[in-house]
What does this fold into?
Amino acid sequence: MTFDLRAFRTALGSFPTGVAVVTATSGSAPIGITVNSFTSVSLEPPLVLWCIDCKSDRYHIFTKADGYTISVLGTGHEQVSSRLAKQGKHKLDGIELRPTQLGPPALADALAIFECSREAVHEGGDHAILVGRVLRFHRHDAGPPLIFFKGKYGALAEAT
It folds into this structure.
């Protein structure tokens, strides 16, 4: 039996995920990447993880960074998400940013922001799994989250 990678990817798309942008500093300029693999790992210590494709042109910057900032996106961030998901489209020019104590900026109107130091980087097939220790966080109630489901963006209605 052959393993159909396309069918596997389509099946994985049946699980709706949130969308985040991770930022780090490359030289003096901040860069970003869109991820939908962000999740919590531990409350004590406070750990989160996200994954990056080993073929990404940003792979070495993020896997070597001492820290990074994760911005959880709302529905108003679809264009930013699409732009930072593409190879070579990693500059944050024209995106409203908010400074952080760690250094890499956050998206100004993100639903939540997590400033993380690098805890660990693990190999995981064709991706690296980056575990970050949350040093600071901020939550901003700014509307519904941006969702990725079956290869498309969508929204999740807030519970009442």
Q: What stands out?
A: Helices lie at 5-12, 59-64, 78-84. The first helix runs from residue 5 to 12.
